[in-house]
């Protein structure tokens, strides 16, 4: 086993691995254990009772984080004609047509979100092998294949994220930064939980939620009490 650093040892000592924490307590602890020399991401790892090899048990959707992601999101758009100017006017960082597809094929990946207009998708299809494993392939379900470029660009810049369950049924999502207040992290995590419940696949059988862990990107995992998170009502919610 690799030797643990003093920093990691100290962080681990703060977390009771046999306990499921109340959501706000867990997020306060996440901040305390984020002791790296940079602003770590807050990550959620959610195991669901689904088997994504079946099409009716797949989960791929988007969530709008009310407190944002805490990072600048670079948006690239593949479009043609007047839609190119529309994307530029809406604040896209990179815009192009066939030439942008060629650049991406050559390895240009200087973006976090790629949006395409429906008419460009037959050409974008050849990027599937390259973009698919990175979770960057445009899809209607993910809100990244659309003719309404202005709305899509604004939403992703403001904190909209696409996420999916991996092949083992686990959702991995970055839902803010360790510098956020525990309350802001909780608002984002609650939005994520509600989205996952709303988008429950039709083929999901039995217990849907299996476990929820949060952590700073360089910190230990902290288990959250699933019922406490799902039952929680934040201010402004009915």
TrEMBL record:
Keywords: Repressor, Ribonucleoprotein, Ribosomal protein, RNA-binding, rRNA-binding, Translation regulation, tRNA-binding
One GO BP: translation
SUPFAM superfamilies linked: Ribosomal protein L1
GO cellular component terms, A-Z: large ribosomal subunit
Any matching Pfam family: Ribosomal_L1
HAMAP family for the chain: Ribosomal_uL1_B
Protein name in UniProt: Large ribosomal subunit protein uL1
Organism: Crocosphaera subtropica (strain ATCC 51142 / BH68)
């Amino acid at each position: 086993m690799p030797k643990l650093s003093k920093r990691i040892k100290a962080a681990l000592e703060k977390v009771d691995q046999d306990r499921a924490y109340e959501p706000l307590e867990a997020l306060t602890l996440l901040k305390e254990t984020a002791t790296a020399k940079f602003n770590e991401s807050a990550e959620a790892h959610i195991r669901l009772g689904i088997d994504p090899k079946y099409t009716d048990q797949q989960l791929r959707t988007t969530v709008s984080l009310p407190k944002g992601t805490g990072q600048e999101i670079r948006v690239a758009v593949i479009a043609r004609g007047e839609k190119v100017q529309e994307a530029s006017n809406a604040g896209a960082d990179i815009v192009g047509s066939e030439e942008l597809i060629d650049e991406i094929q050559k390895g240009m990946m200087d973006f976090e979100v790629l949006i395409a207009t429906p008419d460009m998708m037959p050409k974008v299809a050849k990027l599937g092998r390259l973009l698919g494993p990175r979770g960057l392939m445009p899809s209607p379900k993910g809100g990244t294949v659309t003719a309404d470029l202005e709305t899509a660009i604004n939403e992703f810049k403001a904190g909209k994220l696409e996420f999916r369950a991996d092949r083992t049924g686990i959702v991995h999502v970055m839902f803010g930064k360790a510098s956020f207040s525990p309350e802001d992290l909780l608002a984002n995590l609650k939005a994520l939980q509600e989205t996952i419940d709303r988008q429950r696949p039709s083929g999901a059988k039995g217990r849907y939620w299996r476990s929820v862990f949060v952590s700073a990107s360089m910190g230990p995992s902290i288990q959250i009490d699933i019922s406490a998170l799902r039952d929680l009502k934040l201010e402004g919610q009915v």
